[in-house]
Design brief:
alpha+beta; Jelly Rolls; 8-stranded antiparallel beta sheet
Length: about 600
């Protein structure tokens, strides 16, 4: 591993005959309509080097369009992310997935593998088969790339089982829209993102190939908080978006049933032949869930696959751009998009698509914020990470000592009429910077409870998921629980008093025992609510404090809970009532949070 990390510092920039030349001069473009096995034709743009050297093919299948269209229209790849592929002389293929833009057929969100005569794996297979047979000078090796929704399609390419597919890189991949990603978190509708995204991606039946998409925008004016307080229920949002087939289908599946499980891409991840490079960002607001959990599924269900994981301190897709900055933080040159592409993505594809022409990557490469450095591991979570449990004390402190008192608690009232905001100032869209934003804006609210450690005597690096174990008593039959892990900077630091959000997550109380079989709370009776976050990789520096905040709304990032065990798709604004939430801190019911501390200092 040390050899690999040193090689990152010494790796020269790979220059070819394409370096410094305009893309349109050294590549030619051809457009095709490739037939699939059911007769549907998919628009495909192929960009090929003008020389005759043998080259691998890299494919990006997307629902977002392959603009610019037209045989003489070229994208601006003279710089930026795709320029790395141009410099190396890759054959680059862009394809509109079925039912989107200039491709025929009907679009289906996260189309399940094996549903019907054709799916995204068969479309990938048929595309590869056509390209390898007909595109001149390809070397018979094919890779798939894609970030976000295209990350889902990159995974489908890896699952196609075509023998020419040797590598794929699903990046921030859509994985499970009920448990994670940008539609739901733990069964809670991520209100702003879900509404805007599913409106923009609405594709009615009877699609006619076009250079434009039929989706519509939802302008959350004058600001998203005001907008979603006015449109208070799921029923009102349903009317606003209608007709919207996927949204209406979600209404028929309010809990985690077979319909949702079919759309969990992890269920198809068995016996994967191509090598995988799974990429994600620790501060990805949209698809933080996908990278970590796809990696786990592949390692468990397809252990022979050459599977690599790279996660940096990035917002959504930031590794394809400037990368190193987010909000108030600059994570340094080694967090830049250029560093990532040249040290990870291109060596991966060069190795597997050019017959081993690059050094192998570690199994896992993760960047820790706080101390801003890369780590190389054989596995995730690292085997030497040890659990640290911190108990939430009634005095507002965090302690490694379990409470010994018989009765102790902290209470607050969650009022849906005045939900806790997730940012200091609401705008018309969700800012990506909220993932690391200063949390002092909640100071003074009576519906947010805070627990702080003593200043740390030494640096502590925590990796992996954060597991909260809340012991609660409610005055109503349901509530949500938001747990936030925060890094509080000391007064003598460059950000005195700053409370950096390291990770926040929301959990719907009715799903505390099962996402498939929701249960009401019994008012006045203690209950256990586990809250599991997506993974973190962060170093709390000496002198900093670990802070945990607990609240029951996070608006309008997440929808409000009526705080009654009612039908969330059909309830009215009158069903939203206040709830008294009591957190227990006693020896038989001790609320706690468990972190995993990295001990090796790698």
């Amino acid at each position: 591993m040390l050899r690999f990390l040193l090689s990152l510092l010494l790796l020269p920039f790979l220059a070819t005959a394409y370096a410094g030349r305009p893309f349109c001069e050294c590549y030619e473009k051809n457009e095709y309509r490739i037939p699939m096995r059911d007769g549907v034709r998919l628009y495909t743009a192929v960009y090929s080097p003008r020389d005759t050297a043998s080259a691998p093919i890299v494919i990006l299948r997307t629902p977002y369009g392959c603009r610019p269209y037209g045989p003489d229209a070229y994208p601006n790849w003279d710089e930026g992310y795709m320029h790395a592929y141009v410099e190396r002389g890759y054959i680059i293929v862009l394809q509109d997935v079925r039912g989107r833009y200039r491709s025929e057929g009907e679009f289906v969100h996260v189309r399940p593998v094996g549903e019907g005569p054709a799916d995204e794996t068969t479309d990938s297979y048929d595309t590869v088969d056509w390209l390898v047979a007909r595109i001149p000078h390809n070397n018979g090796r094919v890779g798939f790339i894609g970030s976000s929704y295209p990350g889902f399609y990159a995974l489908m390419g890896a699952l196609s089982r075509h023998p020419a597919v040797k590598a794929a890189s699903p990046q921030a991949p859509v994985t499970d829209w009920f448990l994670g990603d940008d539609v739901h978190h733990n069964g809670v509708l991520m209100l702003g993102d879900a509404t805007r995204f599913l409106a923009s991606m609405n594709t009615p039946a009877g699609h006619t190939p076009s250079e434009t998409a039929p989706g519509r925008s939802v302008r959350t004016e004058p600001d998203e908080r005001t907008f979603f307080l006015r449109h208070a229920t799921r029923a009102e949002i349903t009317e606003l978006l209608a007709p919207n087939a996927f949204w209406e289908e979600m209404m028929r599946h309010p809990d985690y049933d077979a319909w949702w499980r079919m759309r969990d891409t992890r269920n198809a991840c068995r016996d994967i032949a191509p090598a995988l490079l799974i990429v994600g960002g620790t501060f990805d607001a949209e698809d933080c869930y996908g990278a970590w959990n796809l990696y786990r599924a592949v390692k468990k269900q397809s252990p022979a696959t050459a599977c690599h994981l790279v996660v940096g301190p990035w917002a959504h897709g930031a590794w394809r751009g400037e990368g190193r900055r987010l909000g108030d933080f600059d994570f340094g040159e080694e967090a830049s998009g250029a560093w990532y592409v040249e040290r990870f993505e291109m060596p991966f594809f060069d190795r597997y698509l050019r017959s081993g022409s690059a050094e192998p990557l570690p199994g896992v490469s993760v960047f820790t914020s706080g101390d801003d450095r890369w780590h190389a591991f054989d596995e995730w979570v690292p085997g030497d990470a040890s659990e640290t449990t911190l108990y939430l004390d009634r005095e507002g402190t965090l302690s490694e000592r379990k409470p010994s008192v018989r009765r102790a608690s902290t209470g607050y009232v969650s009022d849906p009429a005045d939900p806790v905001p997730y940012v200091a100032r609401s705008g018309i869209r969700r800012p990506k910077e909220y993932m690391i934003a200063d949390q002092r804006f909640t100071e003074g609210r009576q519906d947010v409870v805070r627990f702080r450690s003593e200043p740390l005597a030494e640096d502590r690096t925590f990796v992996g998921p954060v597991d909260a174990d809340l012991r609660v008593v409610l005055s109503t039959t349901d509530a949500d629980f938001v747990v936030k892990l925060i890094d509080e900077f000391p007064a003598d630091s460059d950000r005195p008093g700053y409370r950096m959000l390291v990770r926040g997550e929301v959990m719907r109380g009715r799903y505390r025992n099962s996402f498939s079989a929701p249960e009401p709370f019994v008012p006045g009776h203690p209950a256990r609510v586990p809250v599991h976050t997506t993974d973190i990789a962060h170093t709390f520096r000496a002198g900093h404090r670990i802070v945990i905040e607990v609240q029951s709304s996070w608006f309008p990032l997440a929808e409000r809970n009526p705080q009654q065990f009612v039908d969330l798709w059909r309830c009215s604004a009158a069903d939203f009532i206040p709830c008294r939430v009591t957190l227990l801190h006693q020896r038989n019911n001790a609320s706690s949070i468990t972190l995993r501390r990295l001990n090796s200092g790698k």
